[in-house]
């Protein structure tokens, strides 16, 4: 009888120890999986532009460094606003923990943020500092696009003060990005007597379309000797058009500071670009998204990335 009790006692101790080890293992697994399950949806308007490829690179680096999963999703075209909203809905249905989003259309942006607000998922807007109306945004990570446009006018007005520049503006898709980048330039250009804006046409942020539009602009007005593309891709298209048209000493400048544009500036094909540091923008967007997930309050919702006009005189500082 005594031996039987001894066996039962040992069995009970062993069973309890097994439960404890299993419980600890389960706790450890739960803690680990909880971190892995935290997902940030990173949503650019499309992935065709080198600018957004750089923001994605920065976002991936930051997410990996902090142990978060990053889902990078985007429509095929920048004007596929319904597609973007569908991606937001799908991400919310899969219980994403935060969304970092960019779209050039302010109405689509408001609709997307409202969907996230409905599900109590924090939103970080990147590549824009324009406030989303009627919705709650955790933070805005980007550069002042009107200021960037103004810096292009200042660069043209001072660097080429001894030349009359007849400028053709290549616009993007209708929306706040085009309004700010063009509006900042137009307002600042009034300060400089050597800048004449002679034509404005949309090229939809696309390099190939910009080549055609810039060609048509020049055919309509042979005095054009400068092109301001509201994105680097359009500036590259305009540079090709100027070369084909035989425009001597044509000025071509865009906004983004993409790696391929910087190389083009170094080679003398494109004249300049506003460097916006997209990789840093992607990192900061993910940093803010993680803060939002953790429930940290931000004293300042605006996370502004500084910009600088890059041309052949300083391009080597920004080529990496």
Features:
320 residues; 50% helix; Rossmann fold; 10 helices; 2 domains
Model description:
The chain is an alpha/beta fold and 320 residues long. It folds into two domains: 37-143 and 278-305, Rossmann fold (3-Layer(aba) Sandwich); 145-275, Rossmann fold, CATH 3.40.50.2300. 50% of the residues lie in helices and 18% in strands. The protein is built from ten helices and twelve strands. It has helices spanning 2-37, 50-66, 81-93, 106-118, 145-159, 176-189, 207-220, 232-245, 259-267, 278-293; strands at 39-43, 69-72, 98-101, 123-126, 139-142, 165-171, 195-202, 226-229, 251-256, 272-275, 302-304, 308-311. The strands form two sheets. The protein has a six-stranded parallel β-sheet, sandwiched between helices. It has a six-stranded mixed β-sheet with strand order 7-6-8-9-10-12, with helices on both faces. α6 (176-189) links the parallel β6 and β7. α7 (207-220) packs across α8. The termini are far apart. 47% of the residues are buried.
Please trace the helix and strand order, writing H or E for each element. Answer: HEHEHEHEEHEHEHEHEHEHEE
The appropriate CATH architecture of the largest domain is 3-Layer(aba) Sandwich
Please indicate the percent range of residues in DSSP E strands (runs of 2 or more): 15-25%
Q: What percent of the residues sit in helical stretches (DSSP H or I)? A: 40-55%
CATH class of the largest domain: Alpha Beta
Mean pLDDT across residues: 90
Q: Count the domains.
A: 2
Could you give the count of β-strands? 12
CATH topology of the largest domain: Rossmann fold
**Distance between the ends:** 81 Å
Count of DSSP-assigned helices = 10
Low-pLDDT windows of residues: 1-35
């Amino acid at each position: 009888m005594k031996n039987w009790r001894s066996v039962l006692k040992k069995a009970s101790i062993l069973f309890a120890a097994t439960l404890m080890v299993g419980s600890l293992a389960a706790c450890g697994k739960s803690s680990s999986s909880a971190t892995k399950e935290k997902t940030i949806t990173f949503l650019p308007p499309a992935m065709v532009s080198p600018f957004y490829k750089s923001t994605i690179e920065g976002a991936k680096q930051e997410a990996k460094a902090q142990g978060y999963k990053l889902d990078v999703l985007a429509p095929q075209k920048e004007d596929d606003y319904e597609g973007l909203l569908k991606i937001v809905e799908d991400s919310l249905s899969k219980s994403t923990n935060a969304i970092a989003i960019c779209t050039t259309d302010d109405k689509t942006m408001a609709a997307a943020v409202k969907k996230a607000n409905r599900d109590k998922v924090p939103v970080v807007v990147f590549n824009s500092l324009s406030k989303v109306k009627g919705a709650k945004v955790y933070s805005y990570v980007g550069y002042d696009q009107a200021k960037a446009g103004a810096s292009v006018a200042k660069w043209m007005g001072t660097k080429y003060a001894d030349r009359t520049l007849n400028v053709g503006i290549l616009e993007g898709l209708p929306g706040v990005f085009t309004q700010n980048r063009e509006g900042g330039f137009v307002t600042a250009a009034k300060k400089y007597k050597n800048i004449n804006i002679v034509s404005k046409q949309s090229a939809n942020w696309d390099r190939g379309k910009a080549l055609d539009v810039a060609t048509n602009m020049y055919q309509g007005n042979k005095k054009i000797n400068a092109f301001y593309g509201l994105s680097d891709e359009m500036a590259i298209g305009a540079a090709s058009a100027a070369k084909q048209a035989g425009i001597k000493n044509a000025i071509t400048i865009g906004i983004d500071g993409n790696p391929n544009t910087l190389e083009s500036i170094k080679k003398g094909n494109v004249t300049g670009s506003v460097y916006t540091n997209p990789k840093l923008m992607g990192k900061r967007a993910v940093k803010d998204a993680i803060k939002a997930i953790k429930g940290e309050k931000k004293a300042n919702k605006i996370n502004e990335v500084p910009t600088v006009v890059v041309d052949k005189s300083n391009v080597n500082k920004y080529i990496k």
